[in-house]
Amino acid sequence: MATTEKNKTKKQLIREAAARLFRDKGYSATSMRDLADAVHLKASSLYNHISSKEEILKDICFENAQRFLATMEEVERTQASATEKVKALLRLHIHTATEDITSVTAFNDEWRHLSEPYLSEFKALRKNYEGRFQAIIEAGIRSGEFQAVEPAIALYTLFSAVRWLYDWYKPGKKIGAEALEKQVCGLLMQGLGRK
Amino acid sequence: MATTEKNKTKKQLIREAAARLFRDKGYSATSMRDLADAVHLKASSLYNHISSKEEILKDICFENAQRFLATMEEVERTQASATEKVKALLRLHIHTATEDITSVTAFNDEWRHLSEPYLSEFKALRKNYEGRFQAIIEAGIRSGEFQAVEPAIALYTLFSAVRWLYDWYKPGKKIGAEALEKQVCGLLMQGLGRK
DNA sequence: CCTACCGATCGGTAGG
DNA sequence: CCTACCGATCGGTAGG
């Protein structure tokens, strides 16, 4: 029905405006009045499209978690080397950080404002993803592709190394998306020092 | 006077409890009642020691900024190679993240809740530090010590690569502070891939 | 250091 | 989709 379609669109608009506000001010400092202003509604009208502030956060967090896990599944199924697998995941992180406004919320700390049982559920998904990422790193160390680092340290260093992108990479930047991925991957895989 | 000494101590206790709460819940989600509970006072009694919630944030942010700039000054004065300078700064970041509870607030995004003119002032200090860090990276590229990466990309990658430490490095961990610094520095300078 | 309390703002609902 | 409004909670003050 047309009404359903329209509602869906509006809900999507609200969600994206919310993601932008959560990124800029944080979840707690974003009021429903702020969000309403951003989509040119009164606060009470938001509730025709969403059921609560937390629902927005929850949807954003879990949608992103599912997307990352789906890519992990794909990467695991390939017969690529550990190096190629890590690079593929890094590219996913970089690409998402620069292209999807909602990903920042899900990965740069706002998920902690989820209440139970969502908080535990989200943390479990996150831990699952991290564990599988770490397994790839461990396989790479065993195969001799990677240096003999502590896998957990490597995992979290890679993870957070790309966390600045969301507020640095603006459309106006001279560097292209591909060049950015190449530089960051290169830096993390080869290091800053010259060979 | 004894009273002054006592007040100072209590103020320090409040500040540390605040830093812990800001880290765990974020600045906005931390209420003065939360903070009062943490130091076993009523909310109104906090105001005998501090003048506002934002004052605590402001003090934490600027104190950390000054400390980082002071170390930058020291590092710049040495005649060390770019590699040694970058390592010294990385060690500062790693050490601070694991040892000083207040540093998280200043560097992991809570500073954005400062109001003007403090916000602009803090951002200027931050930009100053980043510019000087980037100059060291540029010198290292010119001298041939570093790969020919985009300096800004290298800067922010190093910067955020250590941002996970504050919630991972707990006293119970088996890895020592020195080993941690060595591993993270090694990873960022040499990369994950084997030579 | 506390009790008592302030106006402002919060997320959300009622009712049309 | 709006006006009108709810109880709860916010940062902070008065006064002792």
Q: What does the main sheet of chain A amount to?
A: none
**Low-pLDDT segments of chain A:** none
At the fourth level of CATH, the homologous superfamily of the largest domain in chain A is Tetracycline Repressor, domain 2
**Number of DSSP-assigned strands of chain A:** 0
Gross geometry of chain A: elongated
In angstroms, what is the radius of gyration of chain A? 19 Å
Name the CATH architecture of the largest domain in chain A: Orthogonal Bundle
Overall tally of domains of chain A: 2
Order of helices and strands of chain A: HHHHHHHHH
Bin the strand percentage of chain A: under 5%
Quaternary structure state of the chains depicted = homodimer
> What's the mean pLDDT score of chain A?
93
CATH class (first level) name of the largest domain in chain A: Mainly Alpha
Amino-to-carboxy terminus distance of chain A: 62 Å
Secondary-structure-derived class of chain A: mainly alpha
CATH topology of the largest domain in chain A: Tetracycline Repressor, domain 2
